[in-house]
Amino acid sequence: MQTIQIRTPVPGPNSRALSRRREEAVPRGLSHATPVYVARAEESWLEDVDGNRFLDFAGGIGCLNTGHRNGATLDSIQRQLEKFLHTCAQVTPYENYIRIAERLNQITPGAFGKKTLLVNTGAEAVENAIKIARAYTRRGGVVAFEDAFHGRTIMTLALTSKTHPYKAGFAPFPGDVYRIPYAYCYRCSYCLTYPSCKLHCARHLEDTFKRVAASEDVAALIVEPVLGEGGFVTPPREFLPIIADICRAHGVLVIADEIQSGFGRTGKMFACEHSGIEPDILVTAKSLGGGLPLAAVTGRSEIMDAPAPGGLGGTFAGNPLSCAAADAVLDMFDDGRLLGRANAIGLRFERRAREWQSRFDIIGDIRGMGAMRAIELVNSRATREPAPEATKAIVRDCYEHGLIVLTAGTYGNVIRLLVPLVASDEQMDEGLNILENALASRVAGKTLTEATAR
Measured between alpha carbons, how far is 219 from 140 in angstroms, rounded to an integer? Predict the structure, then answer.
């Protein structure tokens, strides 16, 4: 059965009417990737207010690894609805907060005692991870990476790399944040080539401690095991262990930001498992809540206990409905089938994308792991000049024909896929066919609509 059904031009009349209302009521700073206004959604598809049905390969920016309105998640939420909605865990606690903490302590990497703090959003989790690291080490500095994204609050913007649209106009930011290059091999900061480079970018951390920031003043290094907003950059396997070893030697904590890469997205429960590192603190959010807001900071017990009572919390942090949803999400990963599905989705994309690369000069790089996959588009393979305008046009062609995908990357020239892991092979092929046609049309200098017009 075909999932995609386009009944009106996109956006349709009802979506256009809502856009006009939005323009009057909502600040322009809250941008949106598509003009598609959702009426309902299920599994890996959504339907807009004009009756058009789309495949959703954006997944709420990676929040829907288990799909829209997963039945088990809805059942768990319903059971909680019949009990209570909110009491505040800091006033009258409840059991499912503790249960989610226990489960995260058990499944996150590291054979040591752990504790978990629950909050609402990824940015809030990162903020708290930095607070906890500073409380434990009694140091103030933080090392972050070029092309990183950690959120839109003031502290997380200091950690985030991309200037426009995220940081421009919001300075000043908190100080004592030091930035080093990521292992972005396609665009190496040192113009070197892997593996002959011997991971110079990772070893540069030692130089940073000598020339930029004294290690005894640095509390933590925060790293995405796979860059998210930065373009789904997957570093060589040795990169993170080298970084972690240098940090350990200097008493600097390692914070793994698994907000987008966690919960099966890369084919393992957490992306850092691919390289074997055991971070001192691991930050999660997005797909943990199955579509409801929930984030977590999980770390070594002695580190997590550093803040005094009252130093951590939030009125809605660890909301009982979100905890109920997370319980169901974690259950769904118990048998390993979703992890297998993530790898199958990734391989299906990889085969198609490699064939596209042989045909379309616009594709400069293909990368990712598991179902966390991307293509980087360039005007010239020789110069690797980014092609952001073509990227935006391809994304537009896709949603006009029933496929929702997102851009990424510092230069806005990456198309990333965050396919719900419940998507079928048929749905994958249906969506990839649209993406392929959009690429072919753009290479031919046409829109997809023009290319398919008779």
Answer: 6
Question: What span, in angstroms and rounded, lies between the C-alpha atoms of 448 and 441?
Answer: 5
At 453, the pLDDT band (50, 70, 90 cuts) reads low
Whole-prediction pTM value? 0.96
- Round to whole Å and give the CA distance between 378 and 112: 45
Q: Is the pLDDT of residue 368 over 50?
A: yes
Provide the number of structural domains found in the chain: 2
Q: What angle do CA 7, 9, 14 make, to 5 degrees?
A: 85
Q: Write out pLDDT tens, residues 281-325.
A: 999 999 999 999 999 999 999 999 999 999 999 999 999 999 999
- 126 lies in the same domain as 244: yes
pLDDT digits (tens, 9 = 90+) for 116-129: 999 999 999 999 99
| CB hemisphere CA count around 191 (13 angstroms) | 1
Beta carbons within 10 angstroms of residue 441's beta carbon: 19
What CA–CA distance (Å, rounded) separates 441 from 362? 11
- Residue 430 located in a structural domain: yes
